[in-house]
Amino acid sequence: MDNAIRVRGLVVDRRGRRVLHGIDCDVPAGRVTGLLGPSGGGKTTFMRCVVGVQRVAAGEVTVLGLPAGSPVLRSRVGYVTQAPSVYPDLTARANAHYFAALQGVPTAAADAALDDVGLTDDADHLVGRMSGGEQTRVSLACALLGRPDLLVLDEPTVGLDPVLRRDLWAAFHRLAESGSTLLVSSHVMDEARRCDELVLLRDGRIVAHDSPDAIRQQTGFDDLELAFLALAESADVTTGATT
Amino acid sequence: MSVQATLATARRVLGQLRHDPRTIVLLLAVPSVLLVLFKYVFEGSPRVFDRVGLPMLGIFPFVTMFLVTSIAMVRERTSGTLERLLTTPMRKLDLLLGYALAFGVVALLQGGIAAAVALGPLGLSVEAGVGVVLTLAVLNALLGMALGLFLSAFATTEFQAVQFMPAAVVPQVLLGGLLIPRDQMADVLYWVSNVLPLSYAIDALAAARTASTITEEMTTDLAVIVGCVLAALALGAATLRRRTP
């Protein structure tokens, strides 16, 4: 299979406001695709559609060859929300063991996932007493442990120190090399260069979708932040948007 | 359903409680303390405590499990863990049964301690046997849990969830025959009390005091309570949506 995610004509309205305006997008399998763009641009809504928890107004989302949200996909897709969705009144290990039981994987896989996110020593601390970055990592471990074919990560590196951020991105690429597909959102342009593919989402529309190098060439800017600014401005001209 | 997911959920809910010893002590000790209080407030008219004591053994688990579940579910909804659970292979029924199992265990402990205090030092008597009282305590806990689960869907904050308690519970206690027998109330109130599930629990517990065997009426009461638990669980399950706006 070439594409892990195939999106056609996706329209989403939330609270009476149009959030996604007819998105078409293919996310290649076995690669790390970055979903970049400003806050409020529709990144989270797009990811929710891929996971199948978002009610959509129109369009089609196919994930691993099946309609998004199909029951079979629940053991093949891992989703990490922006806020750490784990239980603060349990230890990191108890959280991981619980999600392992729900995924039907052995507890050893849960412990290995805690190692992957660098939480070996603190695994028996209560999540509620951990720092924000540590809580994010617990949440991430709970998604990694099922070794999903598709990992959807919503801003997984917010509030993490640079060393850990680098390590996590290395882990993302290892997962991709082992065959998983990753869709990672970020509003930090610095992370864009770590992705194999970039999707720039702005005001509910895709402004660009290419590899970092192709985007640099196309715009003539070496700095991806400047490249995105150029792309966003030219998109404003073509759609007539005033922002 | 998956036994593994259900058991894991029950273990997880009890694990969360275990990290909160103050709540455990309050859950287990407060009913007994209140029973003692009741006994001595009505020392001058001991028949009141005789009549009210047993039904209270059913009301405590109902109230506490209603509160605990509605708050726990609001937390699951607002923290995003519920959405996460629904993206895993777990079925909604596994989640509900997991909660029911965990709170059923707590209710059994709570009811056991309260019954031991009531039947021992406080001198209440049950002709129908302590098993009936404990069964009703657990069923009432499940009823409170199921109603709390359902109503939590209408609360967006924990503050709101707490306010549902007096709204949903106090009328049932007032009309359920605890203060005055239901057939002595005005007709309208009597009719209303007939559709409130707690009335049947109070009836059954009141009957357990004097009936030496399990009567047909008690069986009907039990069946009504079980039916209400299932109906409330079904309504609660309907509020767990995988896809949200």
Low-confidence stretches of chain A: none
- Report the portion of residues of chain A in β strands: 25-35%
Q: Total helix count of chain B?
A: 10
As a percent range, the share of strand residues of chain B is under 5%
Class based on secondary structure composition and strand pairing of chain B? mainly alpha
Element string of chain A (H = helix, E = strand): EEEHEEEHHHEHEEEHH
Termini separation of chain B? 27 Å
The radius of gyration computed from the alpha-carbon positions of chain B, rounded to a whole number of angstroms, is 18 Å
Description of the molecule:
The complex is a heterodimer of chains A (243) and B (245). Chain A is built from seven helices and ten strands. With 243 residues, chain A is α/β, with parallel strands linked by helices. The model of chain A has no long low-confidence stretch (mean pLDDT 89). Chain B has 245 residues and is an all-alpha fold. The A-B interface holds A 14-15, 51-55, 69, 71, 74-75, 77, 79, 81, 83, 85-90, 94, 97-99, 101-104, 126, 142 and B 2, 4-5, 7-9, 11-12, 15-16, 19-20, 79-81, 83-90, 242-245.
